[in-house]
Amino acid sequence: MKLLFKQRLFSWFDSYDIYDEYGNVIYTVKGELSWGHKLCIYDNQGLHIGTIKEEVLTLLPRFKMYINDQYIGQIKKEFTLFKPSFILDCNNWQITGDFLEWNYEIIDDNGVIIGDINKEIFNLTDTYSLNINSPQNALYVLMIVLAIDAQKCSNNG
């Protein structure tokens, strides 16, 4: 499964459209006013299906994840020197990035690749291509990308 994650050019809060490989909008993400990033995910029918919320006042970035309104776990950044690394604690996935923090690989605790995230650099807004091995993991991978992008946005000012 391939998805294209594109930030909208003009919006007061973070807003994204997520497209399938045929150009259809599969998800819409809208930022809400909050202390820290709060991003609500909607399906293509406009139904709220998930939320990611940044925890503030933590040493390393941490994001709570909700499917519908039920808490399911956290995405936590780990301390590393050269390559960014995150843990998705609800299913023990490891997310490792490259030195430039543009490309990431998601691996489960058995070493199976769940998917990869690649930043497309020649765009006006943040754009990522997502390759996901199973459609059932799409929402989790989307939440990971949102956390990574929000963390990078916070670091850049």
Helix and strand topology:
Elements: E1 2-7, E2 15-20, E3 25-31, E4 38-43, E5 48-55, E6 62-67, E7 70-77, E8 85-88, E9 93-97, E10 103-107, E11 113-119, E12 127-132, H1 138-155
Antiparallel strand pairs: 1-2, 1-12, 2-3, 3-4, 4-5, 5-6, 6-7, 7-8, 8-9, 9-10, 10-11, 11-12
CATH topology: Porin
CATH superfamily, by name, is: LURP1-related
Pairing-aware structural class of the strands and helices?
Answer: mainly beta
Q: How would you state the average pLDDT, rounded?
A: 89
Largest sheet composition: 12 strands, antiparallel, barrel
Poorly predicted segments:
none
Strand order of the largest sheet: 1-2-3-4-5-6-7-8-9-10-11-12
Q: Provide the CATH top-level class.
A: Mainly Beta
Distance between the termini: 33 Å
Number of domain modules: 1
Shape: globular
What is the helical fraction, as a range of percent? 10-25%
Proportion of residues in β-strands: over 45%
Family: Belongs to the LOR family.
Pfam family, one: LOR
InterPro entries: LOR, LOR_sf, Tubby-like_C
Descriptive account of the structure:
InterPro entries: LOR, LOR_sf, Tubby-like_C. It holds the Pfam family LOR. This protein is mainly β and 157 residues long. The chain has a twelve-stranded antiparallel β-barrel. The model has no long low-confidence stretch (mean pLDDT 89). The protein has one helix and twelve strands; from the N terminus they run E-E-E-E-E-E-E-E-E-E-E-E-H.
Summarize the structure.
Belongs to the LOR family. With 157 residues, the chain is mostly beta strands. It has one helix and twelve strands, in the order E-E-E-E-E-E-E-E-E-E-E-E-H.
